[in-house]
Amino acid sequence: MSSQTQPLTGIDLGVAGDLAAQLRVDSIRASTSAGSGHPTSSMSAADLLAVLVGRHLHYDWDNPRADHNDHLIFSKGHASPLLYSIYKAVGVVSDEELMTGYRRFGSRLEGHPTPVLPWVDVATGSLGQGLPDGVGVALAGRYLDRLPYRVWVLCGDSEMAEGSIWEALDKAGYYQLSNLTAIVDVNRLGQRGPTELEWDIADYKKRAEAFGARVLTIDGHDLSEIDEAFRSVAEDGSGQPTVVLARTIKGRGFSEVEDHAGWHGKPFPPDMAARAIEELGGERHLLVRGPLPADAAPGPAPAMPSAADQAHGAPQTPAPQPPAYSLGEKVATRKAYGDALAALGTDRPEVVALDGEVSNSTHADEFAKAYPGRYFEMFIAEQQMVAAAVGLSARHYVPFASTFAAFFSRAYDFIRMAAISQANIRLSGSHAGVEIGADGPSQMALEDLAMMRAVHGATVLYPSDATSTAALVRAMADRPGISYLRTTRGAYPVLYDSAEAFPVGGSKVLRSGPDDAVTLIGAGVTLHACLAAADRLAGEGIQARVIDLYSVTPIDTETLVTAVAATSGRLVVAEDHYPAGGLGSAVADALLEAGPQPLHLAHLCVRELPGSGSSTELLAAAGLDAEHITAAARELVKA
Amino acid sequence: MSSQTQPLTGIDLGVAGDLAAQLRVDSIRASTSAGSGHPTSSMSAADLLAVLVGRHLHYDWDNPRADHNDHLIFSKGHASPLLYSIYKAVGVVSDEELMTGYRRFGSRLEGHPTPVLPWVDVATGSLGQGLPDGVGVALAGRYLDRLPYRVWVLCGDSEMAEGSIWEALDKAGYYQLSNLTAIVDVNRLGQRGPTELEWDIADYKKRAEAFGARVLTIDGHDLSEIDEAFRSVAEDGSGQPTVVLARTIKGRGFSEVEDHAGWHGKPFPPDMAARAIEELGGERHLLVRGPLPADAAPGPAPAMPSAADQAHGAPQTPAPQPPAYSLGEKVATRKAYGDALAALGTDRPEVVALDGEVSNSTHADEFAKAYPGRYFEMFIAEQQMVAAAVGLSARHYVPFASTFAAFFSRAYDFIRMAAISQANIRLSGSHAGVEIGADGPSQMALEDLAMMRAVHGATVLYPSDATSTAALVRAMADRPGISYLRTTRGAYPVLYDSAEAFPVGGSKVLRSGPDDAVTLIGAGVTLHACLAAADRLAGEGIQARVIDLYSVTPIDTETLVTAVAATSGRLVVAEDHYPAGGLGSAVADALLEAGPQPLHLAHLCVRELPGSGSSTELLAAAGLDAEHITAAARELVKA
């Protein structure tokens, strides 16, 4: 068939059937041409997507970032051939690009969708993340944008085994996200064989309903049933998210592979592809557009659900202002985080906050009390919290998400994927290290700096006082990518005047002189011990330079190199973190990259599994107090 | 009241009521004495635990590791005052230890339970983990030990928001773990305020039933209802796990705080504690023991559920033997993992395997086919997979769990906690780095070495050929703690004869000579590029030493130091990983710890966000091919 030049609009189900066949054929052609990809997982969902894109998705394909557009997220990102075939069908990707670009080096048509494509909100491919991300977009739609756009998420049945899917449905129900529709492509077959529930649609239905969704069960290859289901979404007044459970057949449309195990993630060889295309009626080049979004003014702000709201109620305080702390005053950096975040909320309406049911510990509650309409209580669901931040970022909000630093490890896959999503999100982890004391090791983040430094493009900050914390929170708001702030449980003296600047990538030299014999490097709680150690050393006649390395990544290599030169390469690095990947590694990596230098490095860190105790006891036991730092420095100087 | 010397056994509900009051009083006393802890969260569950421990938990307190013992796991680990008060009530911890040890430095009565106590199977305190761990213990009980012991898990209501809880209930239902009982203490209040579902027991019930549990709803302060619920567990023939939803009151027993927000995680000041103890009838020192476990021979092995079993069926192959590979033969290290694991299954009946629905990619399916009764398909639920491994380790099995290396990031909190649990688990991550090619960044582990190196006591291995992989898999079986093996998707030449030894902590010097001018360090796929680069360099008259750093942690510092001395400090480290925390950092950390040396380090790694492409294209684009390694070495030598 020949190509059209004008897209068909307002298509009927007959054309949708042709479109579905085209999407199947193009999914096969693209994956066979690439020698890689998932045609059968695309074919099972082709009817669903043909009806959705042709008749229900309100989307201006020429303006992918238009505020009123619906959102289409492929949580089953491996069905990328289907998604890209849709892009061809709506005319934003050419057939040539599809055939020569898919999965090829340098192409934007990657194996799994990423936002290098303007129509993709979030990267998917790690299963169970697209729906949680969609919850974030839907939160923005309902509570912040207050626009009638819908979020449509295509889920695979295998990914329903991920707990994160249930965190997402739980929050979607709780926050009454009637603008969210999950379409589950229940094709019965996973990668290595049958899925856990196979075609037990009734079981899926019970689960989704129990988690607060309105559930529709359909034959995912019956265009009328599909159409009716999607139509009902627009008409539904239940205030619930919708889950469409579609019974489908993997490889649908090509009899040789339909419902056959062993064809997951495998392109058809060219001869099979030819037979499949013939069975599907040959190549087509329909150009189709669905409905455009209607223009609408933002609606009124809906109330937050009661349990989330109960902690704060209507804003009662005067608008928070940027904090100022007195030198020497003891303030916990987590408190400064809350102060600064609340003040940021005053200046910047796009700033939003999320927390994992510990806002009275992270001090995110200060923001929640001041700006309850921009605060999302995520309860104890850290994966969903980070995913919601990613979804909010896709709608151009400036999310700050907080919990205990240790518990961001729960969401590491989501943080890793957020970097691929090019999301701009800010994470604040409180209660880091053995400093937390009596709660013991389960609550102590001792791997978080390593974890966050390894994330692509991440900024990692670890301030030691309230003034620098507040400054860095402000800087994070404008920082692209993933930013991580590590805060401390206990209150320590304010070291800096509020006029001081704390550029990301900088550091502060707190003690220095012409006779410096050794450099002490700390961040967070250990900086205070470094200062005390410098005093002790001075008493012994040893002058020590002290560096506050509040910006762990990017790191101030120049100041480190200068210190190495000034102190004959003698460095003591002290960090409340396990040995690998934290402050010590950051210093080591930076200095080795800077070129050959004499380096006598003493690395003080947490080497044994800690238990409970007081901060003082545990820091001393880990060798992170002034006494141990003093001893390490003395030894370097005397060596 | 005075102390008994002989424990009461076969106690009635009247004594159980006294015991519950004692547990409340002791929870208050312990936390007030420590100035820290969670009395109110203990008080809500005291009636539940008094009846359980006094009348239903079959446990020989004098032989905590007896095979027939029931297992008691506090998934709400912050209720440690209650757990430790139980230990006092059964006479294994003295009142003095409870009052002077709780949360103190050096004490075994840590803020959250850890296995430094012989009655604790797994560390808890990161919520939503105790129940998944309990699933692992129950899997061992039903399928491996085949003993009638029961696993009782006390859950908090706040943690029901964690997706991992639903992964656990899903797998408990799927694997018919009728030996598992989750007791949910629905006390309505979380840390910062009301929980998401508050006292909506009906909603919890719908969810738990939908996930396959038999659900009982009770008043958690009515001793008869509690007793009847626990009694029914022993009599139930449904083959389902049981969830007991107990409506409770936080702070129950002390009218000043009952059901009051604002008392989470706060000990009572001494005056309040005195009033509370008075209201509860004063101090008691009952000594109580519940029933002992019955001796029983292991039962017959039950069949695995169908979808899990379908992929392999009954063992059909001859018992797998240790693999041997020919030099130069191209074999993927992931294939060697499967070969070696299956062979290990032949030698070692305690070896078990788990996989996250990708066993045909990780090659764990070789084990599954040979030993289906010792293989647990976890579908796409990586958190539960790691937790099940921890639970199996608590029962002294030797679990190997596999998935794509990238997806272990999903379970990082569980891996971190596994270290605190002193679990011995082995993780195998396949498809590492840009080497995987067309699937794109969502499937590429590029942070995994950093993540795993940061885990306390972890062993991190990254072999480059099949022979060394097989040897290291064998070594992992005997390795305590957390071991991680990184395998590669593509097939590369076998480098080593099967007689070669690969000690953990070792390395291999593959090229060396008296004129070495530079050292090339690789592991996994980059080692092959280092060897090719050495050939190219030799063609240019530059002799290069080549080190296979298959043991990333622990690392062979001696060989590195020797190479530094031999090649004037010129090192090229090439790794298919992001810059921070991986092979380059491991080398840097080791050399800086070894003392001052001249170091001219070129660190080749993945610095940009990759896309799709072939392995060759992506490795070249990241600067990890022979050409880039050659150029980096040449530059070091000429500098």
3D architecture notes:
- Two copies of one chain form a homodimer.
- With 639 residues, the first copy, chain A, is of the alpha/beta class.
- Helix content of chain A is 38%, strand content 15%.
- Chain A contains 23 helices and 21 strands.
- In chain A, the strands form five sheets. In chain A, strands 10-9-11-12-14-13-19 form a seven-stranded mixed sheet, with helices on both faces.
- In chain A, helix 19 links the parallel strand 17 and strand 18.
- In chain A, helix 1 packs antiparallel against helix 10 and helix 6 crosses helix 15 (382-394).
- The radius of gyration of chain A is 28 Å and the shape is elongated.
- The model of chain A has no long low-confidence stretch (mean pLDDT 96).
- At the A-B interface, helix 7, helix 8, helix 11, helix 13 and helix 15 of A face helix 7, helix 8, helix 11, helix 13 and helix 15 of B.
Give short descriptive properties of this protein:
homodimer; 639 residues; alpha/beta; seven-stranded mixed β-sheet; five-stranded parallel β-sheet; 23 helices
Write a brief structural summary.
The structure is a homodimer of 639-residue chains. With 639 residues, chain A is an alpha/beta fold.
Q: Topology of this structure?
A:
Two copies of one chain form a homodimer.
Chain A (H helix, E strand, L loop, with lengths): L7 E2 L3 H22 L4 H5 L2 H11 L14 E4 L5 H10 L5 H7 L28 H16 L5 E6 L6 H12 L5 E7 L14 H10 L3 E6 L3 H13 L6 E6 L22 H10 L8 E2 L16 H5 L19 E3 H15 L3 E5 L3 H4 L2 H6 L4 E3 L4 H13 L3 E7 L7 H9 L4 E6 L17 H6 L5 E3 L4 H12 L4 E5 L4 E3 L14 E4 L6 E5 L2 H15 L4 E5 L2 E3 L3 H10 L3 E5 L8 H12 L5 E5 L10 H7 L4 H13 L1
Parallel strand pairs in A: 1-7, 2-3, 3-4, 4-6, 5-6, 9-10, 9-11, 11-12, 12-14, 13-14, 17-18, 17-20, 20-21
Antiparallel strand pairs in A: 8-15, 13-19, 16-18
